[in-house]
Amino acid sequence: MLPNQPIPLSPARLAQLDETVRTHPRPGPIVYYVRNALAGDGSPIKIGTTVDLPLRMERLQRRQPALLAELLAWEPGAERLEGQRHRQFRDARLQGEWHWPDVSLLQHVHTLAAGAPSWR
């Protein structure tokens, strides 16, 4: 893979992540990573935190109708971890919680998605 190329997540893995979110609606505080599926693999990635991921995904969609929020990955944690992640990927920061999908962020997302923690 060439530098700065998106690390693809298989459709099957994305479907598995979505199914986990639907079947475990209150996993506790998490840090999530989403992007706009309509904009493709090179679209910015939002790093956020929530205690209710399905509700958060719905609100993202409602607030930004042009955004088709695609969950890429998540990890257990709250605001403190979210802040650490924003600092970790500050060189890729676009605006606020949105980051360009640089190699280090994509590798982090891919690692999380490959071994997504169980909600149980």
Description:
The protein is of the alpha+beta class and 120 residues long. The chain has helices at 11-23, 53-63, 79-88, 103-114; strands at residues 30-36, 45-50, 69-76, 93-95, 98-99. A hairpin with a 2-residue loop joins strand 4 (93-95) and strand 5. It starts with 10 loop residues before the first helix and ends in a 6-residue tail after the last helix. Residues 1-9 have low confidence and may be disordered.
Q: What tags apply to this protein structure?
A:
five-stranded antiparallel β-sheet, disordered N terminus, 5 strands, single chain, 120 residues
Give a quick precis of the structure.
38% of the residues lie in helices and 22% in strands. The chain is α+β, with helices and mostly antiparallel strands and 120 residues long.
| C-alpha-based Rg, rounded | 13 Å
Count of helical regions = 4
What's the N-to-C terminus distance? Answer: 34 Å
- Average pLDDT rating: 80
Order of adjacent strands in the largest pleated sheet = 3-1-2-5-4
The shape is globular
Secondary structure category = alpha+beta
Outline the biggest β-sheet.
5 strands, antiparallel
What percent of residues are in strands?
Answer: 15-25%
Q: Which assembly state applies to the chains in this document? A: single chain
Fraction of residues in helix: 25-40%
Series of H and E elements: HEEHEHEEH
Write the layout of secondary structure elements.
Layout: H1 11-23, E1 30-36, E2 45-50, H2 53-63, E3 69-76, H3 79-88, E4 93-95, E5 98-99, H4 103-114
Antiparallel strand pairs: 1-2, 1-3, 2-5, 4-5
